[in-house]
Specification:
It is a single chain. By secondary structure, the protein is α/β, with parallel strands linked by helices. The protein is built from 14 helices and 16 strands. The strands form five sheets. The chain has an eight-stranded parallel barrel with strand order 6-7-8-9-10-11-12-13, surrounded by five helices. It has a two-stranded antiparallel sheet with strand order 1-2. A two-stranded antiparallel sheet has the order 3-16. α1 runs parallel beside α4, α4 packs across α5 and α7 crosses α9. The longest helix is centred in the middle third of the chain and has 19 residues. The relative contact order is 0.18.
């Protein structure tokens, strides 16, 4: 039964929950953390940890994508970012990190304007090829991301460069985009004709997720991405709390398995998981993997130099994000596997997942999706 409430006499709505609103319940069985498996496989690609680096310039460069791949995760390059617009983006990244912030917070119109100017440089197809080739030469799985608006223009360059996983990531992606001005991307036809697995999103509800699964996608991104940097809720009023969004999309996955005769589409939580506890609860709600931005932007090696932003912050007409200061926690290795020197869940994310799975008695991620949860709204300490 849907948890629908009356908002007013003319409108009813479903009550939704964030990851902070739920808590995981221990069971009668426990395990040793070292006996727990956190491996994840999508299509033919096996990963030691279900961690995906978000395609954001402050998080993933060719170097950090390689590092994450060597540590058992998957790094996704933003193929519309600075690395495909500038031959040497390091001075640009340094300038972004040095831009003055408002003393009252992260928002500064002058910073937004400068980001828009820097991202106005054209995307160079030869740089897409070069960046993906750099990752491929390291021997890790190669993944690159385009927005739906740019996919038709650049996908052939991406595929020809030898990408292993193709990511189509936008604020909101639907299987049926209607436009009177241009020919929309036919996702189903596009995915059918492509020779590589496609991960697509974001999406935050049962019905749109089911339609995306029917396109043939290997994975669906849940959420709107860039939660810490995004201002979509303030700018457009669009927002769905992540616990409910993941659960709804996981239900679509379950029903699609039956509808398709057994085809499994991976549910990937994207956004709003800056701490270990949130990562763990995303799996408890039904995620197969998580796409992390803020958590990895805190790595010493992150290209953002302690700052974090997404493509939404650079939109030329309707920016819906900010450059946010997240600081530095430690090396990427420590953020993923420890040893941690922080008590706030910003490092040893995989260790936190292992410990929670062991504490509740589950041995792998598929089993852990069945863990008992309760609604326990967060109370600030």
């Amino acid at each position: 039964m849907m948890n629908e409430i009356e908002i007013g006499r003319g409108k009813r709505g479903t009550r939704a929950y964030s990851l902070d609103d739920i808590a995981i319940v221990p069971s009668r069985r426990t395990r040793d953390p070292q006996d727990v498996s956190v491996s994840w496989q999508i299509d033919a690609f096996q990963f030691g940890a279900p961690i995906i680096g978000a395609p954001m310039d402050s998080v993933m460069s060719p170097r950090t994508a390689i590092m994450l791949g060597q540590l058992g995760g998957l790094g996704v390059l933003n193929l519309e970012g600075l690395w495909t617009r500038y031959e040497d983006p390091e001075p640009v990244l340094a300038e972004i990190a040095s831009l003055e912030a408002e003393t009252s917070g992260n928002f500064n119109p002058a910073v937004t304007q400068r980001l828009q100017e820097l991202y106005a440089a054209p995307i160079q197809p030869e740089l897409i090829t070069a960046r993906l080739a750099e990752v491929r030469e390291s021997g890790v799985v190669v993944a690159g991301s385009l927005t739906p608006q740019r996919t038709q223009e650049h996908y052939k360059t991406v595929v020809d460069a030898g990408v292993d996983l193709f990511v189509i990531r936008g604020t909101t992606v639907s299987a049926e985009h209607v436009s009177q001005n241009q020919e929309p991307l036919n996702l189903k036809q596009f995915i059918y004709e492509l020779d590589v697995p496609v991960i697509v999103g974001g999406v935050a509800g049962y019905t749109p997720a089911l339609h995306l699964m029917r396109t043939g996608a290997a994975g669906v991104l849940v959420g709107f991405g860039g939660a810490a940097t995004g201002a979509n809720r303030q700018a457009t009023g669009i927002h769905v709390p992540m616990a409910t969004a993941i659960s709804d999309v996981a239900a679509a996955r379950r029903d699609y398995i039956e509808e398709s005769g057994g085809r499994y589409v991976h549910v990937i939580a994207d956004g709003g998981m800056g701490y270990g506890g949130s990562v763990v609860k995303a799996f408890a709600m039904g995620a197969d993997a998580v796409m992390l931005g803020t958590a990895l932007a805190r790595a010493e090696e992150a290209p953002g130099r302690g700052w974090h932003w997404g493509l939404e912050a650079t939109h030329p007409d309707m920016p819906r994000g900010d450059r946010v200061h997240v600081g530095s926690v430690g090396p990427l290795q420590e953020i993923l596997y420890g040893p941690s020197h922080h008590t706030n869940g910003t490092s040893n994310l995989v260790g936190a997942l292992r410990r929670s799975m062991a504490t509740t008695g589950y041995s792998d991620l598929k089993e852990f999706q069945r863990v008992e949860v309760i609604v326990s709204p967060y109370q600030a300490r």
